[in-house]
Write a structure and sequence with these properties.
This protein has about 325 residues and is of the alpha/beta class. It has a single domain, classed as NAD(P)-binding Rossmann-like Domain (Rossmann fold). It is built from nine helices and nine strands. The strands form two sheets. Strands 3-2-1-4-5-6-9 form a seven-stranded parallel sheet, with helices on both faces. Strands 7-8 form a two-stranded parallel sheet. β7, α8 and β8 form a beta-alpha-beta unit. The chain is globular. The two termini are about 30 Å apart. The N terminus is likely disordered. It binds NADP nicotinamide-adenine-dinucleotide phosphate. The site of NADP nicotinamide-adenine-dinucleotide phosphate has 31 residues, from α3 and β2.
Length: about 325
């Protein structure tokens, strides 16, 4: 059962079971969202004109997977803080739309089409961002896809695609970003892992493996470049309201009802899904000068979902 089925069932039946929600939405990544489904992820754009705080004024920021969801919200947030943002994704129409949103709000951003699975495209993307904005001060390696099948149901091609996108994509990004940072003598890299790295699901083998790989790459890179002014950290978001988990085409009211039920059942702690803006805030924090001594870390931003579970007592007969 995938997220979409769960959400639809919830809406249809008007009731919800903990098990069915868990098996779906937290498996993540099942949304091949249509362009029209992007409206719910528009909160960053809805913050209005980009009031430049100057926190990242003039900085060059690169983002992979900026065409929707967390990457899009983060592109908005960096631009609002004065950065010049180069971002990629495969869907040109979505990318151009995000670029337009940011520029209309007074920010500076450039969309460049690139597929993080393809080395030449990643190299070209990184070179173009560095060339346009004068190097790379911050990189947010965020592009990712999900997978929600039991191990024996996964095809070899599906497994490979998840690893190529989520793990090799992060490796390729770091590979081509680091030379610019070494040359400049500074840089910050944040990579999107997931709470699912620490919290496997029956249908999450490919996804969890790929997000654990991200942590491994991050730790090695942190050790490799720490003395050369480059910090590298992994961000582990919990379930976040993006096209990644929201079924395409689901009406806003139905999605709101599903989210309301999902939080208390699955996210002990804050008892709600994250909004993309909240994950973007964490990325900006990690990328800022506020954490000069943090590198090689895996930072959970998951509303407490990996902190543990509240104990549920069976009822006495
Ligand atoms: N939403 C959650 O609950 C959640 C929780 C934990 C972690 N995460 C992680 O957060 C990251 C962002 O996810 P999201 O929630 O924002 O989902 P999303 O809205 O589906 O965004 C995924 C982004 O990754 C890009 N992408 C996927 N494959 C790519 C490829 N081969 N080359 C270039 N770009 C690619 C997509 O762009 P194109 O399709 O245009 O290429 C899109 O911009 C992912 O790494 C995901 O694993 C999400």
């Amino acid at each position: 059962m995938d997220t979409h089925t769960n959400a639809s069932d919830y809406v249809k039946n008007g009731s919800v079971e903990r098990r069915s929600l868990l098996s779906g939405a937290v498996a993540l990544g099942l949304a091949g969202a249509a362009l029209g489904a992007g409206t719910h992820a528009a909160s960053a754009a809805q913050t209005g004109a980009h009031a430049k705080s100057g926190r990242f004024q003039g900085k060059s920021v690169l983002i992979t997977g900026g065409t929707s969801g967390i990457g899009r919200a983060t592109a908005h947030a960096f631009a609002a803080a004065g950065a010049r943002v180069g971002f990629c994704g495969r869907r040109a129409e979505w990318g151009r739309r995000v670029e337009r949103e940011i520029r209309n709000a007074g920010g500076e951003a450039t969309y460049i089409q690139a597929d993080v699975r393809v080395a030449d495209q990643v190299r070209r993307f990184v070179d173009q961002v560095a060339g346009r904005y004068g190097g790379i001060d911050v990189a947010f390696n965020n592009a990712g896809i999900g997978s929600g099948k039991l191990p024996h149901e996964l095809t070899v091609e599906e497994w490979d695609d998840v690893q190529a996108t989520n793990a090799r994509g992060v490796f390729l990004s770091i590979k081509y970003e680091v030379p610019y940072m070494l040359e400049a003598g500074h840089g910050v890299i944040v990579c999107t892992s997931s709470s699912a790295a620490d919290q496997a699901r029956p249908n999450g083998a490919a996804y969890t493996a790929s997000k654990r790989a991200v942590q491994g790459i991050v730790k090695a890179a942190a050790l490799a470049y720490g003395t050369q002014g480059i910090r590298v950290n992994a961000l582990l978001p919990g379930t976040t309201d993006t096209p990644f988990v929201r079924p395409p085409g689901i009406p806003d009211d139905d999605w709101a009802a599903y989210k309301k039920a999902f939080g208390p059942l699955n996210i002990d702690g804050l008892e709600r899904m994250a909004e993309a803006d909240e994950i973007a805030s964490a990325v900006l924090g990690l990328a800022s000068d506020d954490f000069p001594y943090m590198t090689g870390a895996s930072v959970a931003v998951d509303g407490g979902s990996t902190a543990g579970r509240k104990m549920v007592q069976p009822s006495h007969g």
